[in-house]
Amino acid sequence: MRMSSQSVLKASYASVEDERQSDRIERRSSLIPQVISGEMPEIQLGAHTIRSHGTKVARAHMHDWFVFIFLVIMEIILNVIEPFHRFVGAEMMDDLKYPLQDNTVPIWAVPIIAILLPLVVILIYYFIRKDVYDLHQAVLGLLFSVLVTGVLTDAIKDAVGRPRPDFFWRCFPDGKGVFDPVTSNVMCTGLKSVIKEGHKSFPSGHTSWCFAGLGFLSWYTAGKIRAFDQRGHVAKLCIIVFPLLIAALVGVSRVDDYWHHWQDVFAGGLLGLTVASFCYLQFFPPPYDIDGWGPHIYFQMLAESSNETQTGSVNGLNVAPLEIENVRMHSRGGMGMGVSDDNSLNEMERGRRR
């Protein structure tokens, strides 16, 4: 009985997957008559550049950009306000006496690593394919990934107020500890700005930002190179893991510089990668999906444009399943539409003319 129930579950799961696959194929089959008749909508020809469709796409996401501006203001406020000053007793100072030293990765380099580097890759893909839908969704997803991560990171930093490993030297730059005689809490004599920064250990901002931006880049790259096409190309995995390695090394540098405890780095990396995953999947299908190479909005506009063309013209062509497979958008090896059998298309064209 147990074996039979498992077989039924597997069969039902396979049936659902077959239905999803057939729906996608059916959606692509609606494009074939337009390919043959020369009535392919502009969006399907790749002529959707910044100049032709940029304003339209930006207006469609106007509310998202308003939210983006709001998050920028929130991030500024969270960096200005004073964090919670957690109790730090004299007996706790033994774990907070690591040397105060400069950052291996300076703070100005974090936006370059987390935003500029992924943005360069996104722009390169745009100049190759001229797809403003992909460009807009990728840029918006990247910025939201980093900014949402930044807001969450700084909000947690301010609320937790965990002291950094070098807090002693921030609090007492002369090396002479001063503590309250009643509570034994620290009575810092250092600069206020340095002490303020000393209460922002958890989680690591460098790490969360880098994992947010480079994590998004890994998702984006995986979709574009079809890393999960089940063809066994390990080199593709190396490409998508490389950005994560850079983010991990940034996190390691934070521990090496004694600016963070290892728990801060772990939490920051987990936070950034989680937000990056949610933001990517908000705009793009999963990389292992058959539509994983393009944004959701591209296929929505594609379907709308296809329906408008079909309703505006009379076309009695019937497309067989075999012919559907002969026309693929973004075949496994490339970024454009591939036609695998010219003879079948010629036969279809002759049938249409009759």
From TrEMBL:
Q: What is its main location?
A: membrane
Task: Report any one BP term from Gene Ontology.
Answer: phospholipid metabolic process
The Phosphatidic acid phosphatase type 2/haloperoxidase domain covers: 137-280
Compartments it resides in: Membrane
- Which keywords does UniProt give here? Hydrolase, Membrane, Transmembrane, Transmembrane helix
* MF-aspect GO terms: phosphatidate phosphatase activity
**One Gene Ontology term, aspect cellular component:** membrane
Q: How does it sit in the membrane?
A: Multi-pass membrane protein
Against SMART domains, the record matches this protein to: acidPPc
Q: Which organism is it from?
A: Lactuca saligna (Willowleaf lettuce)
**Listed name of the protein:** Phosphatidic acid phosphatase type 2/haloperoxidase domain-containing protein
Tree of life domain: Eukaryota
Q: Transmembrane region positions?
A: 65-85, 105-128, 135-156, 206-222, 234-253, 265-283
The record ties this protein, via Pfam families, to: PAP2
Similarity section: Belongs to the PA-phosphatase related phosphoesterase family.
The yes or no answer to whether the keyword Cell cycle is present is no
